[in-house]
Amino acid sequence: MAQIKRSIGMVLITALIFSMVASIAYAEDPPAENSADLTITLLESSQFPVAGQSLSCTIIIINKGTGVADNVSLTTLLPSIFLHPEFVIGGIKSPWGSPYDLGTINPGQRVELSIAGSIDSAAAGQTLSLTASVASTSADADPANNSATITRVVGEMADISINKMANSNIYQPGDLVMYSISYQNIGTSDSNNVFIEDVIPKELTNVTASINGGPPQIWNSPYSLGTLKPQDGGYIRILGTLSADAVGVISNTASIRASTHDAFPDDNAYTVEIQVVQPAPKSADIGVTKTADKSAVNIGETLSYTIKVENLGADDAQDVVLTDVVSDKLTNVEFSADNGATYAPWVSPYSIGAFASGTSKLLLIRGTVASAASGVISNTATAASTTSDPNLSNNAASVETQINTPPAPIEPPPAQPTVPQTGNSSTDMILLCIMLAGVLIFTICLAIYKKKHS
How many angstroms separate the first and last alpha carbons of the chain? Predict the structure, then answer.
């Protein structure tokens, strides 16, 4: 019993001591009456901020005290990588400036505003720290909750892409091929150490490249683009000539890479295929027609030929040559290529050169029939080309001209001795005999004379 009494006494003494200590403590620091208690909370729109993307932070301020908070101001510490900050309060957007005056906040009142900005596209890997603090001229029951900070590491969201196309799908050897390459960073972060690779097929020769419209230059792969900021891009034109032995499908791939992580690498390469076909053989059809202005000609007259050379084929004829060896029965042979306006000495063969499909050429050749010529003058004109000609039956034309035989000259009859007419035939006969006898005697005498004097 005595023990119980002693225990009760100890409890009473302890309670008395605790009451006294509490009274002393209360007397030294009495609880504030009608004091404010401002609290601040930060809520970011994303816990994984990405370089180049936007970020917003909601700031919630509540007066949890029993007293009014007067002259409340909000101060923020924003990093330099948080660009173009602006805030929205009450549905109104304005550029952000710190500190910001919130005025009076009553007990239990909640003030909410949002600060938004964009993260520097080059800030990948850096630390983003946002601090907001609230202060008042009124007493605050708990100043420890008047500030809040969020800290995040900035991620990256680069997305480089490439596209490629050719100016045609089907080519022939010797054709010019142009590849057009376009590239862009469609992400929100910088893409660093960007390279384009394009190994040109061996079938393309004399390859040059134009970068963003610049002058032609030798193409070297890989090609460095350096840093591509968000939405930056450009284009490359690559030109080359298909070799003579190029044939079939030629595949070419352009790719893009960077040291920065690419969020969507599926668009980092593009392949183009072109078809090279051997051209169909060129086919011309050279035709020749020839006429003479006379079917028969006399010695000393001029004989003229008209020669028409045509390309009746579907393709141009190359290196057309006309051969016409004129007969030696014609002299002073000359030709005209301008329909008779001018003439020049004829030389065979005669080069016409390239001859477009559906065109023709007219030549005039003329000469004088030689004085000793006779019989028939035969003449053949032949045209040939280095282009294939499937129809050779019309490549030559001939014409023959008869030389008229001149009439034989009429010789006069031999002269007859004149005998005087007497009108009597017997008398005439006697006189003739006498005359002949006289001639004979004269001849004999002359011979005897010459003999004596020889």
Answer: 230
- Burial readout 37-60 (b: 16 or more C-beta within 10 A, e: otherwise): bbbbebebeeeebbbbbebbbebb
pLDDT band at 29 (very low <50, low <70, confident <90, very high): very low
Q: 């924003």: which residue's tokens? A: 78
The helix/strand/coil state of 75 is strand
Q: How many Å apart are CA 414 and CA 391, to the nearest integer?
A: 67
DSSP designation for 268: S
d(CA 162, CA 165): 11
In this predicted model, what pLDDT tens digit does every residue of 59-116 receive, in sequence order? Answer: 999 999 999 999 999 999 999 999 999 988 877 888 998 999 999 999 999 999 899 9
Regarding predicted confidence, which is higher, 50 or 369? 369
How do residues 314-357 score in pLDDT, each as one tens digit? 888 989 999 999 989 899 999 999 999 999 999 999 999 888 88
pLDDT of residue 12: 42
C-alpha to C-alpha distance for 32 and 30, rounded to whole angstroms: 6
Handedness of CA 343, 349, 354, 357 (dihedral sign): positive
pLDDT higher than 60, residue 419: no
Judged against a pLDDT cut of 80, whether residue 9 lies above it is answered with: no
Question: Rounded mean pLDDT of the chain?
Answer: 85
Burial-class residue 233 by CB neighbours within 10 Å (0-12, 13-18, 19+). middle
131 by DSSP, 3-state: which?
strand
Task: Please name the amino acid found at residue 193.
Answer: N
Given the structure tokens 């294939």, which residue do they identify? 388
How is 175-230 classified by DSSP, letter by letter? -EEEEEEEEEE-SSS-EEEEEEE----TTEEEEEEEETT---EE--SSEEEEEE-T
Question: CA 194, CA 364: separation in Å to the nearest integer?
Answer: 71
Residue type, 274: I
The dihedral through the CA atoms of 417, 418, 420, 424 has a sign that is positive
Q: What is the DSSP letter of 108?
A: T
Please report the pLDDT score of residue 59 as a whole number: 93
Kindly report the backbone phi and psi dihedral angles of residue 215, in degrees, each rounded to the nearest multiple of 5, phi listed first: -70, 155
> What's the 3-state SS for 349-376?
CEEEEEECCCCEEEEEEEEEECCCCCCE
